Amino acid sequence: MTEERVKLLKLLYSADYPAEWEFDENVKEYLTKLAAYKVEDLIKEPRRLEVEFANIQDQTQDLAVTNYKTFIETAECSRQLFSQFSSIEHKLDELLLDIPKFQTSCTSFCDSTSQISNLRKLNSLTLTKNAQLLEILELPQLMNSFINDGLYEDALELAAYVRKLCSKHSDIPIFASILDDVNRAWLLMLHQLLNQLKQDVALPRCLQIVGHLRRMEVFTELELKLKFLQARGHWLDLCLKYIPKDDVDHHLTKTVELTRINLFNIITQYRAIFSDGESVPTSSLKGVINENMIFFTWINARISDFLEVLEGDLKSVSSVESLLDQCMYFGLSFSKVGCDFRSLLIPIFTKQIMKNFSAAIGRAVAAFEKSIENFTLINKNLPNIPWKNKHQDPLQPPDSLLEFYPLAEYLNNVLKTLNSFRSCAPVAIVSEVVECLQRSLLIIARSIVNLYSQEQQAFTSSAKGAFTRLCMSFSDELVPYVQKCVHIIYPPNQIAGQLGITLQTLQDERISFLNREAIVEPIRHLLPSKMSIEECDMSAKEALEQQVKDQADMVRKLKAAKESKERIAEEVSKLLDLKAQLVAEDGTVAPTNVNQKFTLKTAKGTRDYSPEQMALRLSVLNKIVAVFKKHGAVTIDTPVFELKEVLTGKYGEDSKLIYDLKDQGGEILSLRYDLTVPFARYLAMNKISNIKRYHIAKVYRRDNPSMSRGRYREFYQCDFDIAGAFDPMIPDAECIKIVAEILDSLNVASYVVKVNHRLLLDGMFEACGVPLDSFRSICSAVDKLDKASWQDVKKEMVEEKGLSEAAADQIGEYVKLNGGKELVEKLLSDDTLSKNKSALEGLEAIKLLLGYCEIFHISDKVSFDLSLARGLDYYTGVIYEAVLLGDASKGEEVSVGSVAGGGRYDNLVGMFDVKNKQVPCVGVSLGVERLFAVLEQKIHAANRKVRTTEVDAYVCTAQKNLVEERLKLCNQLWEDDFKVEYSYKKNPKLLAQLQYCEENSIPFAIILGESEIKNGVVKLRNVLSREETEVKRSALADELRRRLGELNLNGTVPA
């Protein structure tokens, strides 16, 4: 309502009008109507209003009277409404009081809904970006996978990506968590890389590892070098730790070898990875660490550790010489890297050599003193041994010492010491050596004086003469001879030249010279003034003549007794040597070109092979190789000699059959005994855990040879082995199948493959009461059952091996058993064996093996034989042996002997591995020499001969002066890939050419003559049937190929 209307209301009704009129539309309309009235209408308006009010009041009264009840109810409703409105008003007042709180709550609710909205939006975004988020969340897991799989390059790139991502979104907590997880994996990778440096890793791998460490930027370059040297040093210590210390010689030899090889590898790796300067000027080292000095300090520490071990072990080694060679080579090889430490070795070895020498001389003196205590000249009929005259060999010990065995024993011990000392005699200790010998000789001189003081009163004239000879033997024979021996080891000319002094000065200073006067001084009063050699000695020539006579008698007796040629030849050689000495005794020199009888022969247990034999061998070997290749084998080769330690302890009692060598480098070597141990060494050295290989090569055994049975000291072995972890008995059965295929293809004779199990043998021995430490020796005895009777084997077990007779008899009951699956079932129910776990395991394995043999269709050729033992120490499971059987109806032996053998050896490779990592292996070895012997006998019995060549045809000429035509035709046939031969004579006789074809089993002869050349033909002659056919020269190749195809050239022809 406008201000004018409000004023009008106030004018009309003063101030007593309800306030709500100001907002009432009816009032507003009424005022508008009043504003349009004239004055007269306005004056009348109050009256009109009063009338209207009275009318309304009357109407109301009438209405009230008429509708009394309604009014009463209305009044009641109004009262209630008023009451309710009052309540509502009160509540509205309270509401007005709660509105601020409500407003605060609404504000809080709005904030919460806003946050929920944001979270909803974030959840929606999360759902839409689910794949990307999963990739981010899986980053730590991916990092761990890369590290576990060795994919360090990928791990480094992933770590760099995560760090970049986290720096970009540093406000997001999940990225901080991911970064923490990646950093933990980062430390794991660092630990793994450092651990890999502590293992046997090659240079390329080292480069990769250090490259990864550099990219990780955890260490500075200096710290990285230190970590590298620490890790590689740890690996070297680990290698040295696993060297067995039982045998000092072996321990020290392996320590030298491993330290040299591995330390040199570490230095090479360090030089290739880090670029240290060759040298750093001293002036530039102020406040700066010389990294090159750290490297050389580390090397010096490693060499010091090695020298400490060397000095400690050197006290107990048996041979200083070989170790000196190894160590000096070690030091020399390190000169290439500026670390030549040979000068540090010299004092160590010199000191130990002198200690050993002094100890040996001390033992010689002690032995002399013990002998001289029991030695007496009284009532002894001592032989008067002749003295050495001027014609006798000056290097031979004086014969006069033989009369006095304490002196002879002393000299023998001294010579033994000097001989071992001679190969390694340092010049630096020459004075100490001479002083040591001089002290020992003085002790002997005093002992002689003591002997004199004890026995002089009882001396007879004979004993007194003997004592005089004793003193003269010592002073005039023993002392000069010892001096001569010293000068052989230390030649005065060489010593003087090395010292740069004259011989006279050398003698004056007594360098390498004994003080003979001081040595003889204690017994000088006991020596005669002069004694001639002729008075004290019989003629040496007569003694030598007597020796020649005795030796000749021995040779005659040996020939009369028909001894072996080897024994006779040995004694004849001794006789010739004695005769040569006798010639020199006469003062004449034996001419150097005297034709002495010399027996040409091969060494014992070896043989030469003729072309026929070699042709047969190659044929057999080709068939064997074909079987090996059919089964998927590859071939390798190993050295013919190995380090002795590689072979030692692998063959049980047969280790005594190993041939030992010694090369110039000081390594103790042996010829290989078989091909299995070198194969195991090859696997361990090259870290191979899975291979199927064959190897054909010569092996050597110092055995008693038997040529007729194909047993030699040098012979071929054909080995087939399967290395790797596979299911039980599957590869084992294939090895037996291979043996059967080879023997079937060679068609040598009927055979049987005997099988047994090492666990069954051990269980059997245990059940029979054999002590555990006697298992292998008893096994070796059982292994001889194919060569000796049970009684002989039992005697060896009881008398030599110390086994009780009851245990031997129980073993005898078992080793007589053989059969197939029925025997396995019988033994499984055996009361004794069924209680032994080892025996049960062996029987179950044999049962499985025989089942596989049935599948391979060889069960009729396999026999489960409990007498089979195979004495080699390295077998751990199934063992087998193929034996040829003779034809009893033809008077042949029932068993010709073993031609193949083998078994499972699961622990052999681990013997060569530093960490004892095992590679299970099974294999078979064929003794082809016996197969060759059987086949040779078979061919000889069939009156056939072996073709020594594979020539297809021989080109002959019938007339003279046709050598060029002969060469042209040969060249044509060679180019057509035929094997042809011709005579090297210019004009050979046709008959001689045809005879050559027959002698050498050449199937065809191609004859050329002038008429054949003119007509462009040749005569093709079948050598066996002597049928000749003219063939055009242009068609010769096709015709010859066709006829060769019709022939069955199987390597032998009728003799």
Automatic annotation (TrEMBL):
Keywords: Aminoacyl-tRNA synthetase, ATP-binding, Coiled coil, Cytoplasm, Ligase, Nucleotide-binding, Protein biosynthesis
One record GO biological process: histidyl-tRNA aminoacylation
Keyword presence, Cell division: no
Signal peptide range: none
SMART domains: WHEP-TRS
One of the record's GO cellular component terms: Golgi transport complex
Presence of keyword DNA-binding: no
Domain WHEP-TRS: 540-596
Enzyme class: ligase
Coiled coil stretches, renumbered: 541-581
EC number in record: 6.1.1.21
Residue ranges of every copy of the Aminoacyl-transfer RNA synthetases class-II family profile domain listed in the record: 605-935
Record-linked PANTHER family: HISTIDINE--TRNA LIGASE (PTHR11476:SF7), HISTIDYL-TRNA SYNTHETASE (PTHR11476)
HAMAP family (UniProt xref): His_tRNA_synth
Protein name (database record): histidine--tRNA ligase
Organism: Dendroctonus ponderosae
